């Protein structure tokens, strides 16, 4: 016997063998079981989704004789063994008239067809007219068919099938029960192909089946035909490499590799992947389209993980990738990809356009947004956030080191002199800022006891009254007293160099500094950084560094931090959660979690050190206590109270009331601004 292609060999013969189209199957089965049969059915849908198959199964249900020859013998489960069922399966049932409307478009053909409608069926229970591609009939043919289609003889059923129902006249559509068949999703195609190949005894790789399922584009017949071709191409096996070579399509794993490089913000790897792709001569426009499709799936995975499709068999991979991106990055990359696709027509070549689009994604990535190592999905509605990487990496570093990383000027001001003078000589003015410097100490790193003094150079100016104080009392030789340390680091504007501050100090202060520099050598045995912070408080500190920071003091000292931009906005949405003297933990409003970046955490830590609160700072996102307000909420509340007071004052003003009474004036409260607006966080 000659070979029969898989599409015909595995054509469903009953409703229960039908793959997909459950909505149509349910309606037809219920109509057959209840005896509520219409005289005309219209099946619409793309190619290869089962229109003709459904029509033939329905014809068998109408003419199966396993349960009797009368109307009671109609069933939704044809036996497949009676003469009528076998004849329909073999294509020789005389009462099933299949018409190809594409080849019989003339009105004469339709009239010839309708001349035999009046005659009773020869072999079966009903005479069934199956008209395929009915939209190809001419207007005259449709007009000739209308009357018979509306009121056919009781023994006649019309089954119409078309891929383009928009071309059918409304008069035809109104006379039929229309069923729209859906495209087959890749998951269903892969499942069916695996079942068919297992029954055929043919080995296959699942990834190869996913390639076939995507290439079929919703058509089961196309999938079966491509499977036949893949079996022949792979010499009886269906392998991923063979199918990819046969289809000539881009391997989806290359697209995922590009997205992974984006997740790692790795530009060299990104260009290397493009170079590897170029060796295969792909369509770079299609590569960018595939990347945009992956980014769309990432956005869906971040918001609604359960809604991610498994069209490529990579659902788990997509979910893992989605947790490595922020929502802002995904949206930005998608927008750049879509715009880059439109710009490809103006690029020198397609590869250049793809590379520039990918590099643009990295170049325009928000620098203040962190790169999460693993973000729980979905992103919205999460009750806790991730701890930024900055505090963890700086757990063993001093506040001066963290500040130096973000502020080169501060780092240079904290650096000790490379060649300090002998102990018995007066110290230069710039050296006097660091009273604890060793006469013969190492140039770098700076000793721990210099950190508070170095931090005091950067804060904003305050009242320089402490500089005018009298001579400082004597202090132990190895440790300067608090009164002694204050004149040496007297606060000046940030633009004023340390030497200018020291030049304005009385001669008695220089003598004290000289005495400090003549301190004994064993300064190396000073306590650790934490102990030095507790011993030597900042001169400008609103609260000494050895005092724990509570939330009330956080609110009071917020404006003195001198923060601005995104950093101020981040800190303004935080409340103090814990402070043990070395580690300060702030809890961040979850709605602002995207701003929790290393650079902002470092700036807040530097600002706190500038007012004498030298801590390792950790900012964690989480639900805020209802009874505690953030600096932003406090500023909003104060602003609202001041606005209400201003409105009340205007309403009590006799001149305003006179205008209202005389001219019917109305006070627009939204335009009222207090005379001295409260600072906003």
UniProtKB/TrEMBL annotation:
Keywords: ATP-binding, DNA replication, DNA-directed DNA polymerase, Metal-binding, Nucleotide-binding, Nucleotidyltransferase, Transferase, Zinc. SUPFAM superfamilies: P-loop containing nucleoside triphosphate hydrolases, post-AAA+ oligomerization domain-like. Residues 37-183 form the AAA+ ATPase domain. It catalyses: DNA(n) + a 2'-deoxyribonucleoside 5'-triphosphate = DNA(n+1) + diphosphate. The keyword Nucleotide-binding applies. GO terms for molecular function: DNA-directed DNA polymerase activity. It comes from the Bacteria. Residues 417-426 have a biased composition (Pro residues). The keyword Zinc applies. Belongs to the DnaX/STICHEL family. DNA polymerase III is a complex, multichain enzyme responsible for most of the replicative synthesis in bacteria. This DNA polymerase also exhibits 3' to 5' exonuclease activity. DNA polymerase III contains a core (composed of alpha, epsilon and theta chains) that associates with a tau subunit. This core dimerizes to form the POLIII' complex. PolIII' associates with the gamma complex (composed of gamma, delta, delta', psi and chi chains) and with the beta chain to form the complete DNA polymerase III complex. This is DNA polymerase III subunit gamma/tau. It comes from Halomonas sulfidivorans. The lineage of its organism: Bacteria, Pseudomonadati, Pseudomonadota, Gammaproteobacteria, Oceanospirillales. The gene is dnaX.
